[in-house]
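Quick illustration, no need to memorize.
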Amino acid sequence: MSLVPRWRVHLKVISVGISDALAYRGSFLLGIVTSLIPLITSLLLWSAIYKAGGTGLVIAGFDLHQMLSYYLVMNVLRLAGTVEDAQWEVTQQVRSGALNNILLRPFNYVVMQWDLRMAAVGVGALLALLPAAILFFVARSVMVLPASGWQWGVFALSALLGIQISFLVSICVGLSAFWFLETSGFLMTVFPLQMILSGALFPLELVPGKLFAVLGLLPWTYTTYFPLQVYLGRVTPAAAAQGLGMQAFWMAALTGIAALMWRRGLRRYEAVGG
C-alpha cells in the first residue's frame, strides 16, 4: 500500500471516530453534568477539612487553593481525554468474534483504535471548552494558575503524552482478552485501580511514602497526575524534563508490549463468531 492511500485510510477512520463522537455528544454532555456531582462533593469535603484545620493548613504539601485546583483541572482532563473505553471495546470484539471482519481490513488494528480514540479526544476537548470555561470562571477565586510560560507549555505537552499512555495501557488491558475466557470481572477491577493509580481520585502524595515512591515508577502516574504537578508548579524545570522523559519511556515500552501482545494474541485467536 502506498503512502497516500495509507493516509487516506487514516483520515477515513478519523472521520468515522469524529462522526461517532458527535453522534453521542448528548451522552458526553450528560457525562459532564453527572461528573459535577462527585466533583462538587470532593470540593465541599476538602473545603470542610481545610476549614476545620484552621488558616494556613497544608495537607501533603497542598494548601486549600492547590487542592481544589487539583480536582478542578483533573475533572477537565478526565472529561476531554478519557480513552479507557478502548479496553472494553477491544475485549468485546475479541470475545464476540467481531474481530474477524476487522482483520480483513487494510490497516493495523491497534492503529485503527488509536485513530478512533484521538478523534474522540479532539471532539471531547472541543465540547469541554465551554463547560471548562464556566467551571473555571465560577471557581476563579480559588483557582491556581501556572506562574510561568514554560509551565503552560510543559503542562499541555505532558497532558497530551498522558493521553497516549492511557490509550496504550487500555489497549494492553483489552488485548488480554486473547488469554482470558471471562474478562468483565477483570475490567471492573482494573478500572478503579487505574483511577487510583493515576491520581484521578486523590493526590498520590496522600499514600504512604514508600508506596508513593513505587507509584512514581509506574505508567499511570504519568497519565494525569504528572501533568497536574506541572500545572500547579509543584515540579522544577529539571523534574519536569525528567517526567517528560519517563512519559516518553512508557510510551515506547507500552507500544512494544501492545505490539507483542497483538502478535501473540492472534496466534491464540480462534476466530469464532462475528
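Residues 165 and 251 are 6 Å apart (CA to CA).
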